[in-house]
Amino acid sequence: MRLSNLADYAIVIMAATARKCGGGRVSAADLALETGIPVPTAQKIVSKLSAAGLLRSTRGAGGGLQLARPAAAISMADIVEAIEGPIALVSCIDTGDCTVDHECSVKPHWPQVNAAVRGALAAVSLAKIANEAPAQKEMA
Amino acid sequence: MRLSNLADYAIVIMAATARKCGGGRVSAADLALETGIPVPTAQKIVSKLSAAGLLRSTRGAGGGLQLARPAAAISMADIVEAIEGPIALVSCIDTGDCTVDHECSVKPHWPQVNAAVRGALAAVSLAKIANEAPAQKEMA
DNA sequence: TGAAATGCGACCGAATTGATCCGAATTGGG
DNA sequence: CCCAATTCGGATCAATTCGGTCGCATTTCA
Fold first, then answer.
1. How many domains does chain A have?
2. Which residues contact B16 (CB under 8 A, 6 or more apart)?
3. Of A12, A115, A121, A139, which residue is most buried, by most CB within 10 angstroms?
4. Cβ contact B116:A115 at 8 Å
5. Which chain A residues in 87-106 lie under 8 Å from chain B, judged by CB atoms?
6. Which nucleotides of C are covered by protein (CB under 7 A)?
7. Is A1 within 8 Å of B9 when comparing Cβ atoms?
């Protein structure tokens, strides 16, 4: 019942990107420096985020990352799903096969739980996070 | 974003216990046979469940397990917390220390997400699960 | 065209999880 | 009152996954 550190980092990185992506591109190294996440790990996360279509990566010198969608259109659920795959609390739902199949009276209740969790994550948009605490780094 | 198999098993075991605990005690081995979970694993889960106060264990010959509370008073959240510890999506909340401390603009949003998740889990009681699909398996 | 910077992919180590085994405690029967 | 069977409890060991690191192909600016 705990999402992986990668997903946590991904949210931080996305927030940092939203904050710095005012008008240009940001490099993964720069984001790593900004967030304190190890550079290679940040690159790995950025790769997944790009593959998921949340970030747009520009190759070559002077390139970098930028949000593929406006910050208001990106939610925690999107980021978590990009890193961790579909939001399903149990493997049963994905594979459709419980190791203990039986009647599995629990199965009918998972969809509603999953939906609730996803809703909770979807309720928080990236714009909200970025605006919450710019802290000392107030940008004009 | 996926709870451990142990927690999943725990829910199945609790449901089976609620179903078979009509008037007596059930052995861990019997529950394992009923649910299809490996016996040693079932014992391990039962231990944690007992330690958490959800099950009452009776030692000795003819002993076994029984629900410590009525099924209606036990929710998924209780079981998950018994196995996985407190429901916190990120380690930051527990430890109070992010590896990337910075401003951590994400932190203020976690409590509401955690509460929503916990609420979703607490909304499903063990009685509901046990009543959903008794021993018989309807045609699908 | 050349060189530098960047993102991308694969490899390796560490940690948590999951499964197994053995020992201690308790009760029922003789 | 003693013995034995059955049970839970804890400790140990292997496996899968996650996290971190390194090297390379690609792409752009000079």
1. 1
2. B26, B31, B34, B35
3. A12
4. no
5. 87-92, 99-106
6. 3-10, 17-22, 25-28
7. no
Q: Summarize pLDDT for B57-87 with one digit per residue, the tens.
A: 888 887 788 899 899 999 999 999 999 888 8
pLDDT of residue B61: 82
Helix (H) or strand (E) holding B64: strand B64-67
State the CATH number of the domain containing residue A20: 1.10.10.10
Whether B77 maps to a domain, the answer reads: yes
Inter-chain contacts counted by CB atoms under 8 A, chains A and B: 146
Enclosing domain of residue B60: 5-132
In a domain, A50, yes or no: yes
* Nearest alpha-carbon partner for B102 in A66, A41, A32: A32
Q: How far is A56 from B48, CA to CA, in rounded Å?
A: 46
The answer, for B33 touching chain A at a CB cutoff of 8 Å, is no
| Inter-chain touch B136–A103, beta carbons under 8 Å | yes
Residue A84 forms part of a structural domain: yes
Nucleotide nearest to B41 (CA to C1'): C19
Residue A48 token pair: 């997944």
A chain contacts of residue B133, beta-carbon cutoff 8 Å: 103-105, 108
Are A133 and B105 a contacting pair at CB < 8 A? yes
A139 in a domain, yes or no?
no
